[in-house]
Amino acid sequence: AAASDPAAAKAARARRATLTADERARQNRDRNREHARNTRLRKKAYVEELKRTLTELVTQRDAAEVEKRHEKQRDLEVREVRYRVMEEFLKLRARGSEQNLLARWIAILEDGFTL
Fold first, then answer.
1. Residue 111 φ then ψ, to 5°
2. How far apart are CA 85 and CA 108, in angstroms?
3. What contacts 109, CB < 8 A, 6 or more positions away?
4. Cα 63 from Cα 76, distance rounded (Å)
5. How far is CA 69 from CA 50, 62, 65, in A?
6. What is the tens place of the pLDDT at every residue in 93-106?
7. Torsion angle of C-alpha atoms 26, 31, 33, 36, degrees rounded to 10
8. What does the pLDDT read at residue 2?
9. Distance CA 105, CA 88 (A)
10. End-to-end CA distance of the chain
């Protein structure tokens, strides 16, 4: 309010001019102490925000690593199943066209499959 009102600013200057050296020193120490306190609070808030950000990033990284491992395991399982299916397919193909193999062929092939 004092900064926007010229009369109030003039009155504040007049009060400062009438202060003794000890009173001015005390006022400067108080102002300095308050500024230092505010600076420490800002720094503390900043450090807390950095900690939160770090925690989030570590959590995201760990989740991505777990997902990557699961995906790798799923790929390995799919590859294993495909290998077994191909192996079974080739064994049945090598046996020829025996009638008792029809049920096994049906289990392997999709409906409507033709050669």
1. -60, 140
2. 7
3. none
4. 20
5. 29, 11, 6
6. 777 666 667 777 77
7. -160
8. 47
9. 9
10. 91
Q: What is the pTM of this model?
A: 0.53
- DSSP run (H or E) holding 74: helix 21-95
Query: How far is it, in rounded angstroms, from Cα 34 to Cα 28?
Result: 10
Query: Tokens 């392997």 sit at which residue?
Result: 108
Please provide the average confidence, as pLDDT, over all residues in the chain.
Answer: 86
Please, what sign has the CA dihedral across residues 65, 67, 71, 76? positive
Nearest alpha carbon to residue 108 among 94, 87, 79: 87
CB 108 within 8 A of CB 92: yes
User: What would the two tokens of residue 25 be?
Assistant: 């020193």
**pLDDT tens profile 57-80:** 999 999 999 999 999 999 999 999
